[in-house]
Amino acid sequence: MYRSHTCGEINLTNKDQEVQLSGWVQKIRNKGFMVWVDLRDRYGITQLIFDEERSSKGLMEKAGKLGREFVIQVTGEVIERESKNPNIPTGEIEILVSQLNILNTSLTPPFTIEEETDGGEDLRMKYRYLDIRRNPVKNKLMFRHKVGMHVRNYLSQAGFIEVETPYLIKSTPEGARDFVVPSRMNEGQFYALPQSPQTFKQLLMVGGMDKYFQIVKCFRDEDLRADRQPEFTQIDCEMAFVEQEDILNIFEGLTRHLLKEIKGVDISDFPRMTYAEAMAKYGNDKPDIRFGMEFANLNKLAKDKGFNVFDQQELVVGIAVPGAASYTRKEIDKLIDWVKRPQVGANGLVWVKYNEDGSLKSSVDKFYSSEDLLGWAKETGAKAGDLILVMAGDTTKTRTQLSALRMHLGNELGLRNPEEFAPLWVLDFPLLEWDEETQRYHAMHHPFTSPKKEDIALLETNPGEVRANAYDLVLNGNEIGGGSIRIHDKKTQSRMFDYLGFTEEEAKEQFGFLMDAFQYGAPPHGGIAFGFDRLVAILGGQETIRDFIAFPKNNAGRDVMIDAPAKLDEEQLKELHLKLRL
Amino acid sequence: MYRSHTCGEINLTNKDQEVQLSGWVQKIRNKGFMVWVDLRDRYGITQLIFDEERSSKGLMEKAGKLGREFVIQVTGEVIERESKNPNIPTGEIEILVSQLNILNTSLTPPFTIEEETDGGEDLRMKYRYLDIRRNPVKNKLMFRHKVGMHVRNYLSQAGFIEVETPYLIKSTPEGARDFVVPSRMNEGQFYALPQSPQTFKQLLMVGGMDKYFQIVKCFRDEDLRADRQPEFTQIDCEMAFVEQEDILNIFEGLTRHLLKEIKGVDISDFPRMTYAEAMAKYGNDKPDIRFGMEFANLNKLAKDKGFNVFDQQELVVGIAVPGAASYTRKEIDKLIDWVKRPQVGANGLVWVKYNEDGSLKSSVDKFYSSEDLLGWAKETGAKAGDLILVMAGDTTKTRTQLSALRMHLGNELGLRNPEEFAPLWVLDFPLLEWDEETQRYHAMHHPFTSPKKEDIALLETNPGEVRANAYDLVLNGNEIGGGSIRIHDKKTQSRMFDYLGFTEEEAKEQFGFLMDAFQYGAPPHGGIAFGFDRLVAILGGQETIRDFIAFPKNNAGRDVMIDAPAKLDEEQLKELHLKLRL
Questions:
Q1: How many CB atoms lie within 10 A of CB A306?
Q2: Given CA atoms B397, B401, B402, B404 in this order, what sign does their dihedral have?
Q3: How many CB atoms lie under 10 A from the CB of residue A332?
């Protein structure tokens, strides 16, 4: 053992004791006759002191040679500090060192190992092992562990069994691209890495496992958008003999437990909203309901008043920005520029200032009377002092654009408090979604999702209108979980594959095992999967997942620390029966 | 919710209650006027009853149409059984069904879903989802979950942090073969799946994480021996600022906890043995010490007595088989045949019967006097009534052969009680092992293992003699864990790569990131990894891991249920910049 204590636990109750510590040199103050060293380990920082009067000459010399991030072991006496530091648990004491053992030296690190670092993203990733020494990163990894333990213990106590499903499975062209693994033993054949354990968890339900969960890595070979990783972690869950209501209750319980235990936040019943309502009210299927600015449909009030721009459009829709009537023209122009950026793609914004004195001033005063505008204010819920912003155009696009603006304003106005938590169930997702590119319907959730019984007839006439037994759990504007009640009979499942454009052979080849399984007594079942990286990040009060992952990949899917992926030996390729096509 | 209770919990305290159950039809006894159904779910079996007098005609008809493995939902009244079954918790009651809802039908399953099944291995694997419905398989998966939860909670409470390390890493030709993953975004380059998170856990130590663990899938593309899987699970652990003794204590604690909590077995200090001692005493680095038959070196006693066969050999070694003096000639010949099989490869066996009456009879009476043989008896610890078996030859081979015989006899004589647990630390493994094929030394553990300080000088003169700070935890004749104190400085690590035949460029290309990390203040560290599949199997009283894995692969690395691996679309291959070489 290299230590009697950690660097985070010694205080005045240890006074006069001899202790042994090991750790990294965080900081050195060398006054010649006296040397102070901040010694750091995972648990905290303890101040060491060497001084001319009480330490040997050899020891003083050795202390003088220490550098940042050297690894040392010291023995010494716990003494009371003269100038105490009330900000850290060890701030009342220091260690008068009697023995110093340099366990390892260090080159000067490429960035400072402090709360705030001077290292840029690239450098931090290349030297991730140094970045992890920094409290913010280390604490996020420890936080992730804590959340994981709470999830496991909660589900385990609720009777769920964690079952490990295989990683070397079969590629199915449906959905995102698979990562594949060539088989050496089965010439010309490939495994695929799972995008999720979906079919296996359903087979476990057919196998009578009843309540399954797994915290598990999943893989998607997608072109990486910001804050996506090719490998990511899910809390994957499935239950048999349940209806949608049962799933919602159980996993609302899990989420409530996490919020309570980890954040100390008590939330009773989670609100619920249909997909249609979420789209109409927030233009978004994962609305952040920590703040208002709900959409108001202004079609009736704003059309046919002589303003051509609105008359031609499918949807005129507005929001009331609280307290923003005082925005200058310049500030409003900035918002207009913001929505015109290609990332949002709007044509512009109509604005109405509902001034504190009750007067109204707008960019469309030519076309609308004050009474008209007061009608808009009523519809959007604007009060005196608010700014009304209005967009118009094609329904889907305009909602998306106004939603982007709403979120932008939420951030700007500080309405998205990371320590406030507003969960929300979004229900009744569409079963299918039209894909312009391939000119056919895709499963919105996945092809195993069951349609609502009352909508099945619509499959023949209006497939886009069919609602699914599918639900998302949204937290602070992020989808943290999503699931569905599954199809559990062969007939419906093969009909679904048919709708999705699978030939009978394709369906059989790719999912024959599942449809076979459905013939041997498959129970009704359903489940949910949480994005663990995202859940942890949001509970940690952040929106980017990267720092909650020990060794993340960059946007090109590379691990810049180990420099992967990399070339293979020709010998290895041969064994795998492969040639490069370059 | 499809049920008010599970099939495992209803008893006489529920008498007269109306309950709702869902599950599978396990068994039907139809007497025409009365139908009994055993309804099964994950939690147990409850007997249902339909009878002419109390049930409607429609209900009787419906019950008559039920088949094995149909999924049903019933509502009914809990009544007291006339003939009780004391073997199951629900054996005092039955449910008088008032409503029957067939949730799904079932084809006749291809094998019986009972404790013992008539299905062969292949059939069971193809229909694994049906196999899992069987109690023995289902219970093993639930047992695995239980062990996993104990491991996680124990380590978490001991301050360990579970950190997820990446699955898409870099291929290193050292060790077993990697499974690789072609990168679409990085043309001509490949990721590798980890054989273990070894380098990442070491980097976490460099990163100050101090105590790390992870229950994690690992991958090895090996030609599969019986009971090996291409993907397997490890409990992977690493600690900083520790010496070997610290690791042994902590993980002895974990193992003791598991034995106590899961098996109710109390074991105080685990015995320890050096590798050299284990090889000399048991011919095996993972001896089963639940039984004796320790090896006795008979070189002094058996050589130079005129028996040529022994005189020429490097080692003459014997064991005493308890109570086996009564073996017939036929039984002994069977043992001789057994050791001559190519799997063992011995030339033969010399035997000595130490009869109950004290007389001695051997296959080498021509060469050895009774006094000589009494000497052998003393050396092997044989008592009157025992049988002494002796082998001779090259030291390493002969030990391995006699060890195989010892284990065989242990099984035959019922000395390997699966409910008895005998853990053992084996210490001081050799650092290097000579490989005949490549004519060079390989790392016995892995290239990151540190040599014992006192043996470093031997690296120059006698590398095969250098001992490592490496240790295995053995349980009942199986290695369940192994680890080492690692090298933590760049100089030693690059010297080690040098010894192992790496050029400087190779070492830099493959492990440059690790040696770089060692330059920035790497702490002393070490760890251990447990084979989780094996550990669970042994705790479960079994030696084969397959049934403790939900969806195992066969010996050709195939998943016969989903039929993987499989061919890829030409389109997919193109995207991955690959051609088949067939």
A1: 11
A2: positive
A3: 17
> What would the pLDDT profile of A276-333 be if each residue is shown by its tens digit?
999 999 999 999 999 999 999 999 999 999 999 999 999 999 999 999 999 999 999 9
Question: Which amino acid is present at A168?
Answer: L
- Nearest Cα to Cα of residue A343 among A436, A442, A435, A225: A225
Interface predicted TM-score (ipTM) of this complex, two decimals: 0.95
Residue from the list A132, A167, A549 with its beta carbon closest to the beta carbon of B217: A167
- The two structure tokens encoding residue B451: 């040599």
Nearest residue, CB atoms, B169 vs list A109, A221, A562? A562
Sign of the CA dihedral with B280 first, then B282, B285, and B289 last: negative
SS3 of A97-154: EEEEEEEECECCCCCCCCCCCCCCHHHHHHCHHHHCCCHHHHHHHHHHHHHHHHHHHH
The DSSP bridge pattern shows strands B387-393 and A315-321 to be unpaired
Q: Give the Cα separation of A316 and A567 in Å (integer).
A: 55
Note the Cα A418 to chain centre separation in Å.
13
User: How many beta carbons lie within 10 A of that of residue B172, not counting itself?
Assistant: 18
Helices (H), A345-480: 370-380, 395-412, 458-461
B23 Rama class: left (phi>0) / alpha (psi -120 to 50) / beta: left
The residues, ordered by sequence, that sit 6+ positions from B53 with a Cβ below 8 Å of its Cβ are: none
A202 to chain B, minimum CA–CA distance in Å?
Answer: 9
Contact predicate A60/A23, CB 8 Å = no
Q: Are the C-beta atoms of B179 and A168 separated by less than 8 Å?
A: yes
DSSP letters, B422-437, are -EEEEE--BSEEEETT
Between CA B110 and CA B334 the distance in angstroms is 39
pLDDT tens figures, A153-195: 999 999 999 999 999 999 876 678 999 999 999 999 999 999 9
DSSP reduced 3-state for B162: strand
Distances (CA, A) of B371 to A178, B302, B365, B378, B388: 73, 12, 11, 10, 14
- The SS3 call for residue A309 is helix
CB neighbourhood size of A266 (10 A): 8
Of the candidates A133, A164, A190, the beta carbon closest to that of B208 is on: A133
**Helix/strand/coil for B480:** strand
CA–CA separation, B253 and B528 (whole Å): 13
* Residue entry with tokens 């009494």: B374
Token pair recorded at residue A156: 């385990």
Contacts of B522 in chain A (CB under 8 A): 71, 104
Preferred mutation among B69, B102, B168 to probe A, highest tally of A CBs within 10 A:
B168
- Per CB-CB distance under 8 Å, the chain A contacts of B187 are 582
d(CA A202, CA B70): 17
Amino acid type, A406: R
Contacts of A141 in chain B (CB under 8 A): 161, 163, 209
Contact A71 B200 (CB under 8 A): no
Between B165, B524, B553, which is nearest A551 by CB? B165
Annotated binding site of B for L-aspartate: 174, 220, 445, 486
Cβ contacts of A206 on chain B, cutoff 8 Å:
129-130
Helix (H, G, I), strand (E, B) or coil at B327: coil
CA atoms within 13 A of residue A28's CA, in its CB half-sphere: 19
Mutation target vs B (from A26, A130, A168; most B CBs, 10 A cutoff): A168
Chunked mean pLDDT (size 10), chain B, 582 residues? 96 97 97 96 97 94 96 98 94 97 97 92 95 96 98 98 97 83 94 96 98 98 83 98 98 98 95 98 97 97 94 96 96 97 95 96 96 97 97 97 98 94 97 88 92 93 94 97 97 91 91 96 98 97 92 94 93 92 83
- Which token pair is B68? 């094995």
